[in-house]
Amino acid sequence: MQHQQVETRPYDDQRPGTAGLRRPVATFRQPHYLENFLQSVFDIADLPDGATLIAGGDGRHFNAEALQTLIRMAAANGVTRVIIGRDGLLSTPAASHLIRHRRADGGFLLTASHNPGGPDGDFGIKFNVASGGQASEALTEAIYARSRSIGAYRICTDLAVPPLDALGVHAFGDCVIEIVDPVSDYAALMQSLFDFDRIRALLASGFRLHFDAMNAVTGPYARHIFCDLLGAPEGAVQRATPLPDFGGLHPDPNPVEAPELLRAAEATGGPDLIAASDGDGDRNMILGPGGLVHPCDSLAVLAAQHHRVPGYREGLPGVARSMPTSRAIDAVADALGIPCHVTPTGWRFFCNLLEDGQLGLCGEESFGTSSHHAREKDGLWAVLFWLDVLADARRSIPELLDAHWQRFGRHHYLREDWQIADADAANALVEGLRAACTPGAAPPRGVHSMRDFAYEDPVDGSHSEHQGIEVLLDDGSRIIYRLSGTGTRGATLRVYLEQHVTAPEAIAQASRNVLAALGHTAASLGRIEHYTGLSAPTLRV
Ligand code: VG1
Ligand code: CO
């Protein structure tokens, strides 16, 4: 197949963040913007001759157009097989699994995850390597460097991309395009991990499940797994058709973006388990009668109950959490006598440990949980894990959670997001805190210690610096400050608050009340108003 060499000029803003390159759709629509980034990946990724790639996304606006370009450029760059989910759809965990399952050399995930979609929303691209995990920091930095000097890209303009709405295999010269069912391999993986008969019996016994796909990619997966395979009624899965603009929703499953789910959980006589996922299907929110199971608690409970689930019965070699995630999981790891690794924010930092067989479960406070079955976090997997635990334990979610807290104490936890229009002000704030971390600097009153978190990967020895400021207070509570790496406008300061309690009355209190004073301490310690003029956070989750 003939390919063309098209001249281009570099853009200077193609540095991937916490999880891929995310930009407003309008930015991606600039001439050659998408092509430049894709070519930078092809130049750096060092794919073998005759490579196989997986491609698919969350179905958001610009997904279809970007796929056309990607296919034509893959063919021009020597890729001989592109495997695409029907309709261009693949959830992030399903794409990760497909890369591994089909022994592909990598994959492109077209998603901006939980960021809003539509013509005025965001688009994004993640490149995942042959292990199914996201490109490492070193690789994304090299791609970024390449994007700043790129002069041309390769594309097969005359390749007529087949319609993506029917399964099939199409050959174009040396390149084969294969359109696959996005759901079936993933569903089979889930069946290999969980006891579907037991979950089916639970659902048949009157247990009420409510899953909200938020008009995003998990709809077809949830329908097939919960309704077809597990016998849940049709109505159990809602907003199940992926829409390019998510129906105007912000597909971010948390109590602020989905308040109606929280209300349904708090109402008497509501469902036994309410769950939701995000745009690309890698996040999960779990609610039970009475309210939210905080993701930090969810990770800890799943670890403590792992022996109930077939895929994990042989034990967990270790667990991991991102640094800002609460230490609830550390307490469980301690009791199990296994290591708990602490990594920087972003799933890519778990991947080497997973690949090396050192982790059973891992998770982040940002509604992300997963295990060694994939190299991405996995929303539906977490829901199935909860269902399987509940089916075996024959106890309700609040009963399991209360018993967990009685045994381990409760880590009250809250994240405050401060939306700051001026990114320079946000950087100055973090610099101010960083200065206070210098060895020898006297810690402020009430502060036990402060550090600017740096990480050395135990598998490949790579270093990552400036991954958040962690403050330990004299009373054992903890504050973390870091800037978001997924936003596309201004800056978002994330402030994470954590306090461990063991007294029954303190366990029963609402986290917001317990952590109110710590929130004030965090604001004054970080001099947030001084730097930003803001006196209250934009969002608390
Ligand atoms: C956020 C979360 C982080 C998560 C990342 C990608 O990053 O804090 O835990 O891994 O999103 O999730 P940041 O840099 O904005 O804090 V997803 O579902 O958007 O791929
Ligand atoms: Co996501």
Mind sketching the topology for me?
Elements: E1 4-7, E2 21-24, H1 25-28, H2 33-45, E3 51-57, H3 63-76, E4 79-89, H4 92-101, E5 106-110, E6 122-129, H5 137-147, E7 152-155, E8 168-172, E9 175-180, H6 184-193, H7 196-204, E10 209-212, H8 218-229, E11 237-238, H9 259-266, E12 273-277, E13 284-288, E14 291-293, H10 295-304, E15 319-322, H11 328-336, E16 340-343, H12 348-355, E17 361-364, E18 368-371, H13 379-393, H14 397-408, E19 410-420, H15 423-436, E20 447-452, E21 455-456, E22 463-464, E23 469-473, E24 478-483, E25 491-501, H16 504-508, H17 511-514, H18 516-525, H19 528-532, E26 539-540
Helix pairs in contact: 2-3, 2-5, 7-13, 10-11
Bound molecules: alpha-D-glucose-1-phosphate-6-vanadate and cobalt (II) ion (CO).
